[in-house]
Amino acid sequence: MSLVPSVTELILAEFLYLQYEDEQKPIYLYVKPPIFTLCVGNAWGKAALLLAAGATGNRSALPSSTKMIRQPIARFQGQATDVDLARKEVKNVKTELVKLYAKHMGKSTEQIEEDIRRPKYFSPSEAVEYGIIDKILILEVVICSVLIFLHFCAIFFFPIFIICRYCTMKGAAKTVVLFLTLKRLNLSEHRRTCTCDSLYSHTSLLYSSYFRGYRF
Q1: Per-residue pLDDT for the chain (216 aa), expressed as one digit of tens each?
Q2: Where are the domains of the chain?
Q3: Closest by alpha carbon to 2, among 36, 30, 28, 50?
């Protein structure tokens, strides 16, 4: 299951409920390895770290995605002592971040320190060479694109196929009756507002009626 906002909100809600139910009882969270990570759009900063922290061989990205690593960003204000304390804390965070980058990307801490002096962007192929991901999902994207194309063809061209079959096999009279039926179902309005399931149900009913030999 992907860590989309709805999933993370559900996890937080579960934690809050368990804490409300018993504040003293510990909460256990089990993560089953291996962890698969996939970059769909942009993985910048800590998102790139999460992407690289996946199991080796299971870190992937889409061809149009981008990755970027950088050092922590913070802004301080207040008296001199507070600014100095915040500065030290950011330096500690940077040190830990560099160690994690080096661990998951297979680089030395010195190279990571040098690379994150300024934000460093990676294309998918560059991310593979750097060690952020292991593979680029090209074949899967092609398959998904074909399935989406077939899905839309089934939605928009299946009713046209029914009309053509009625025109060819059953004559103009049944075509007129079918047109009135489609008009009653308000098919053009369905294309804009209804769900795919309801559209499939209407067209499947008409198609099954045709093959069963129903007389209008």
Answers
A1: 666 778 888 888 988 998 888 888 888 877 777 888 999 889 999 899 999 999 999 999 999 899 999 999 888 888 999 999 999 999 999 999 999 999 999 999 999 999 999 999 999 999 999 999 999 988 655 666 666 767 666 666 556 555 555 555 545 545 555 555 555 555 444 444 444 444 444 444 444 444 444 343
A2: 5-137, 140-211
A3: 36
Token pair 């934690």 is found at 15
When the candidates are 3.90.226.10, 3.40.1390.30, 3.40.605.10, 3.40.50.720, the CATH number that belongs to 5-137 is: 3.90.226.10
CB 94 within 8 A of CB 72: yes
